[in-house]
Each structure stands twice: as structure tokens, then as C-alpha cells.
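Narrative of activities, Objective 1.

The group set out to show that a structural description can be obtained from nothing but a protein's sequence at a throughput compatible with the screening campaign. Below is one input-output pair from the validation batch, recorded exactly as produced.
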Amino acid sequence: MASLVFITGASSGIGQSLAWRFYQAGYNLALVARRTEVVREWMQVKGISAERCHVYGADVADVNSIVHAGQQCMLSQGLPDVVIANAGISIGMDTAIRSDLDVMAQTFATNNVGLAATFHPFIDGMCKQGSGTLVGIGSVAGIRGLPGHGAYCASKAAVISYCESLRGELRASGVRVVTVCPGYIDTPLTRKNRYSMPFLMSTDDFADRAAHTILAGDSYRVIPWQMGWVAKLLRLLPNALLDKALAGRPRKHRADEA
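Output recorded for this entry:
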């Protein structure tokens, strides 16, 4: 029987490229998205068989919605071998603006609670069989805070810490937890950024390296590796030097600027 991968945020960008990469590797697909019609159109374009790919409509920011999608996956396709919590949002914020506090709550609901809710339906089954891989998609932005990007940076820092905690909890069970932190990836969202994006890479290149990391059993990886070194250097910079380096940097679009 073919292995099964469950991927959220599969209607575009990283999620779609990961789905194609795992399909090419022989995996059956369980794809989750709010825009299910987009996923089905993509399946037709790629010639993906409906026998090997099921699509589930869900909003990861709604806990009951994503948990139900996971339960339906197990009923229809069985317990996944790999679960990739990829769905996420990135919106700039200004703490002085009241509506941006709602943006922060929405970001955490999607990027953090939604990630945990994505894993939730599968943990008991994976622990009982003593195998399985849970993958959290973090970001280099979670390693050091960027001005105007507080909600996203904080949420991705939380993804990194949460996955680290979960990895320790599940260590004895045989279930692996993998944290993948992308640098700048060429997606419809990043194309709107108004600042430079060093070492920008395509979603397909990222998916190839991420899949290799996941299947190799690595616990943590920054992709591309160059951004890993940049992140380490930023982490070592004293606050005064970091603040000076980031002074005047264009900020992420806020919700009413997008």
C-alpha cells in the first residue's frame, strides 16, 4: 500500500509544490484547503488521479473544521504517514492600530492553534503504531523579530518552540517531529513584499529540499542553508546593532494596505 501524506494549505505556493513532490515520490495525497476547487483544477492540470488524491475543505483557523478534515481523512484513506502543517498567513501589523490586534489574533489562530489542531487527530494513532512524521512549517522570520512584522514573527517563533516541545513529548513513541523553516520563497504572497529578499528560491526547489529533509528524518532545517547562516548571525547581533541594521527597512503590508 502506498504511503499517505496529509498537507494543509494545498491550494497554492509551498503546499502545492510539496504535494506534487510527494506524489512524484509515490505517495497518495490528502490535501486540505479552503479553496477546494483550485486544488481540483490543479489536479486536472497535473494529471493526478482521484484514486490517489482526496481533497478536504477546511479552514485551519477553525479548530473543529480542521480536526474534522483529519478525521475524514482517516475514515477515507487511513492514517497518514506524514502530516505537513503548512497553512499559514503573513500580514503586517502596527500595534498602535486597534484593528491590527485582530490581525494578530487571526495570525495566531491560523499559524499556531491551527497547526496544533492539524496534528491533533493523528497523534493517538501514530503513537499506537509507533511511527509517523509531523511537520511544522516555521520561518526564518521566527528567529529574530522584524519591524512591522510582529504578528508573523511571533507566530513563527511559536511554531519553532511548539514543535520543539512536541518533539520531546513524542520522542519515546517513535513519532518524529520535523521543523522546516523557509527563507524567502517565491510565492504570490512574497511577490507583494516591498523589501529585498536575499536567496529567494522557487517553491519547487524548496519542496525538493524540504521533502528530502522530512524523509531523511532531520528534526530541524532552514532552507535554503544560506538563510540559516544569516539567521544565526542575526541572532548573535547585539540589539543595538540589529536595530540599526533594520532601521528604515520597508515594512510588510498591513491588511488595509494589501
